[in-house]
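User: Here's a chain of 718 residues. Predict its fold as tokens.
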Amino acid sequence: MREGQDNEGVSPRREVPDATDVDDGIGVDPLGDADRLREEQAKKNFAKVGSARPTTLLYTYGPGAIIDLPHFTIMPSGLDDWERIWRRRDADPATIHAPRLLEAVQIMLGHQVRELRRFPWQPSRPGIRRDGDDLGVPARVFPQWLRCTGCDLLAPLSRFVNGYHNTHPFRPDQAIFEHIDCPGRLARGNGSRRLKNADKRKRKRRSPCVPARYLIACPNGHLDEFPYDWWVHEGTHCVKAFHPELAMTDTSQGVATAFISCRACGARRSMAQAQGEEGRKRLPRCRGRHPHLGTFEKDGCEAEPRVMLVGASNLWFAATQSIVDMPRFDPAEIKRDRVEILRRGVGNWREKIGTDTDILRMRLETAGAEAAALCDLSDPELLELLSALDAPGESDDDRLKRRENWDPVDLLVPEWNYLLQEPPGDRHEDPASGLAVSPRSLGDVPEGVSRVLAVDRLRKVNAVLGFTRVDDYDRVDDSEARLVPLARSGQPSWVPATEDRGEGIFIQLDEAAVAEWEAKVLASPVWAAHRAAHRRNFERRFSETAKQVDPDDRLAPPRYWLVHTLAHGLIRQMAMSSGYGAASISERLYAWPATERREAAAGMLLTTTASDSDGTLGGLVSLSEPARLAEIIDHTLRAMTRCSSDPICARRIPQDPEDFLHGAACHCCAMVSETSCERANRFLDRRFVVPLSDFELGSAMADVTVPDLAFFSDYRAM
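Assistant: Prediction complete.
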């Protein structure tokens, strides 16, 4: 079926297309037909419409998201369509070796995930060349309802497809859809109809078309075109035309909104009626559509749909996972890594090898550097790995049970344990992971800071698991059904990943001091207010998990607030001395109390990374020198005692019915870019780091006596 037409005749009880029916009517193939273009000796791949960085495609505009191009919007397709790209290349897809991250992905998505693949990258070359034109992320035009800017015509993409052009060899951003022979806007004047702002003698023109900005989404991750035809006719069909012409006009009278009108029967309806709680009752039922996959849920969807705009921030939330690659200590983990390397190295030679270690070594020597390194193992060790390779894998039921008990903190524990180790010598580099660390003396850092490491080189690997709509995905005990799949089967064999290299500074806080401070905070009325606000915020979420989980289990502990707020202050201060912008410095926080599964942690790794294989230039590591770091920490703490928004900021403590997840923190003092913060500027409070002078409490808690809650209590306002 053609995508631009599948909304016609939608009703609240319309039969939903079968999930096996793939919606492939995309009008223009954004991937392009490389073979046809090559046969025609075309100078340009007309289907290339833009470019984006891999990290952007991972966190902001991944599969299922909407990318706003200069003249229209597109949606990256699911992973099934990506396979078409790899089949056009002679070489195998480029993969990223990160066993620890792959294990986490398998827990979430299943053991059928065998690879972390890089994005299909098209290298830049001078001149007009055909090499690599078939590379890139496949995408589809979405939404496929467009509005003519010249005459306000609202129609499916098929109406304007003949007006598509993208001809400049070096400017794919100039790709555009135009309405051919646009008549212009009609207006009434002097008793007769005339062309507005146009001379009748002018020929009909080509007017640019822009996406119709309204969509329908639901909390289960479905997204659909808005049914304009059904809406303007209030659930029926036009009585004068089977496919009537529609128009979308904007007005600023009273409340700015758009009106949909039918040029055949004259029906007219405001889009404002579809907004809000009352508007949701007027919408048709969700059809369970996944436009990035081109599929519909077999039985539709019972979730309540809602109108959303194309550029809405809650239209797409990436569910990602990342690690900093560090050496393994656990023998069980080392064995699992070796088994996985052996699996890739052996390939389809398993039956031929049997138990012959000589044949095995011959095979491994030609299977890459990692596999060749296994040849150094003894025969009994190799046979043990072969036995583990042949052992039955974990069942899906066992995986789901393990997933229920899995915590994202589990990925951080190995990193924390390694960073606690004192490196041998002045600089130690692990050849396998590429991690290089150098110990630093403390110098004149404030009491409470117990250890500093310069991380000269590091490798960070990021992978996307899926995404959600309307509501962000909580990886702890959240419903697996809320995670929108990346492949039509729901069981991808690989997921996209990126690999960045860079540098960082590791700062550890004194555990005894943190534990003593944390006990004081837990007993304070300020923490009681934060806990109550978090409960209100959690219960107001759209996800069903809010009804099944104790909100207190999801509240970050006080030590996390301390480390998080301090990290933000350091990021802002380091940006002024390192040569990197604040948005390019990111945090990795290690802050959790002791449990039966792990020891307590209180520290941070501030990093900057780049996709270039050479990494970064050392501007951040240079700040780890004792004198410079002591000066930076001192300036950070003193700056945090005052905010340009004080006393309003300093007195901020959430009170019923407020549900914000921060205290004395705002964009003037503690909040940073979303690229730097791992928790979207939540769980921040300056009063947990430094004293806030006379602004400790707001009027709502004026009668409450609160002890000094600052971890660094010696720092007073400048």
